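Protein Record: Sequence and Backbone Structure Tokens
======================================================
Tokens: labelled as protein backbone structure tokens, with as many entries as the chain has residues.
Task: work out the structure tokens from the sequence, keeping to the layout shown below.
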Amino acid sequence: MKDISMTTNLPRATPQSRGTDPAILCALLDDLERQDIELHSLLVWQDGALILDAYWAPYAPERPHMMHSVTKSFTAMAVGLAVADGLLSVDDAVLKFFPDHTGPIDENLRAMTVRHLLTMTSGHGRGISGGSWRRVRTSWVKDFLLQPTPHEPGSVFVYDSAASYMLSAIVQRATGRMIRDYLDERIFRPMGMSRTMTWDTGPDGVNTGGNGLSCTSEDMLKLGILHLQDGEWQGRQLLPREWVRAATGMQVRDVVLGTFTGDHYLGPDEAGNDQSASRREGYGYQWWRGPHDSFSANGLFGQYCIVLPKEKTVVAFTGGLDDNDRRVHGLIYDGLRPALGAGAAVAGRDERLEVRIAGLRLKPRPGIARPNPAAGPLVGSWRVAPNDQGVERISIAQEANALRFTLGDADGDHEVLAGFGCFMETVTTMPGARLHHSYQPEAGLRVLACARWLAGAGGEMVLEMEWIFVETAFRDTVRLHFSDGLVRLTRSVNVNSSELALPELTGHPAAGADAPREKKHG
């Protein structure tokens, strides 16, 4: 491995050149595997260079990834630029930007300022989740302004993606530009961020400030590097130094993150179902404060950018993790952090790290990864019994060493092409909002799919498909159980904010259709 090289515009270096033992990074990768932690990428920037750039296939450097609430820290940059441009102040009243609001106005709503939105102290009793708002087709701005405000603004921390959306709406009203375009000119292009970056838009024609940003892991890493460097990038001050220090500083100390219900973050005193609120070090302007004087941009399901200023380090990772899973944080704070710059060991370990990284991939599932010769050609169509998912029909067609699975509903047919023993990549409009935190873009999602046979009970044939939605945290498992001409379909997901499995569907052979033959036992 060369000491320094350039890919895109990030310098790279060996861990040893930064005084970090590569064996520590190998041990970190080993711990992730041993604990069966599903990461999709892991990047470590130390003292001016990238010392670890790891991706678990099929995830890769060029692929964008849905970042969820990491988006909030991008939105904060747009607010900082607008403040620097003299277009707004953090002490401006929220209602100043919405003179067309015709709903009731109480004293707490009247007192709410931009600063209260930035610090999640708006006065709301509950925080709205992006997964909840994505089901709302009317104005999100109007919905926010009609929410009850039982607390005096500034007095109670309630985590709220709706507050971040309002920041996006305020910047758009102040600048006349969507924050995606505003940041593209001032931050993204100067930093060489990926051109594949996308940002969802709400019903008001406003970028979803609290979530909905998709970018590469390197883009997220650059967000952290820019803030580690007090807003400076390659000799240019892109973001005001004073803003960066305020945004990443301790604006609210010792906060309580209420229980997440899937639709709302409860207030700090509300009890959740078998869950408890968690206490955190503090909060800045859309940045979390963490242990060891760190700060971070945090997203649901394992999307994180952690900045360790004392170690001159940024750690960025993406994954498919339960939101309460803090194991990666422990490995970073307790294992990696003390080893950064602590001294390198014997030569040659960089090469071993390279080999370790090259072999990273998601764990394969067991099963027979080939067409089932006992079943014959896999072809069939089934009418689906009435169900709460709106599915009307399913069909299967075998194509060489792959199968084409089709699901029909009121919106038409949705297909996934799955390879036997290999993943095939396509774009699918397959419905899945209930399992995917309400994400279901009209253009579809990129999916890698494979198929395998499992041993069934009582002569039943079981076909399993794995659908990896490779630009998100979501990985679905779909099983088709064939018996007596009928088919039962189950579908589950690795992570979600609410249900992890959909109710089982039952299909009967369509008129004139052939179902797969059952395996013969003799």
